[in-house]
Fold this protein.
Amino acid sequence: KMLRTWVTEFLILGFSETPQLQMLLFPAFLLLYMAALSGNLLIVVVIVSSPALHTPMYFFLVNLAMVDILCTSTILPKLLGSMMAGRTISYGGCIVQLFFFTWSLGAELLLFSAMAYDRYVAICWPLRYSALMDPRVCRLLAMAVWTVSLANTSVHTGLLLHLPFCHSNVVQHFFCEIPPLLKLSCAPTHLNEVMAFTADIILAVGNFSVIMLSYVCIMASILRIRSAAGKRRAFSTCSSHVLVVTLYYSTVIYTYIRPASRYSLDKDKVVSVIYTSVAPSLNPLIYSLRNTDVKVALRRLTQAFSH
């Protein structure tokens, strides 16, 4: 039987009580949201409208852009609104935010693995690439990413719905995330913590290991490339991907792989900004807009609109 919560709304503490700092943070987060939204929407439009980009790599980039739009749109509009007006969020609103954020988080972690696998096949098995990564395989991989992450968030949200909140309604964070909410429950949260830890081991540590392994194989293949220019180009692509993946995974692992009692207010807020706001803003630049094919497609698209 589901327990009724004693809390009907939460107070999101946000970043600062200082008005001067709030005035600096509002434009910073507004800029991050606009960059994430416009950059990722641009990626989707450019790739969908350019037949030359209908390849597995860009198919996964469209999925990544959609995940980033979901993530930032779940967190940042509410954060910006709370900076301007009231900082309360209803119990239902908080649960919805947690559900969609955890969904996007899981999907992003899994997508990075799908993208690394795609690059591994392209560089290590070039002659078998079109057979191993045909459209059906890509669709199945994408479906698996969205479904597994949906199942993951359903489990965490379902477990959280069974917790009563009667100690306090002050969320020491800038959005509704699992660790700060577990801290507020007046019932044992051991099962929630075990499930969060398990999901983190499988989704974060497991995927990160798969990605690193695929990049070791990719690097070994690159080192066999004879031309210096070819090596440089391949290394520059891989290094930016590895940087984004390492930054994203390390912050997620740090947040979820310890008990709620070890939750630290200020450190965790800064860490969360990286995977909720900074990474979705940087992904379009790192993965796509530095890419020659995307630049060519973007130019064609702007020329078509201007005519």
User: Anything to note?
Assistant: The chain has a mean pLDDT of 87. Strands lie at 9-12, 88-90, 170-171.
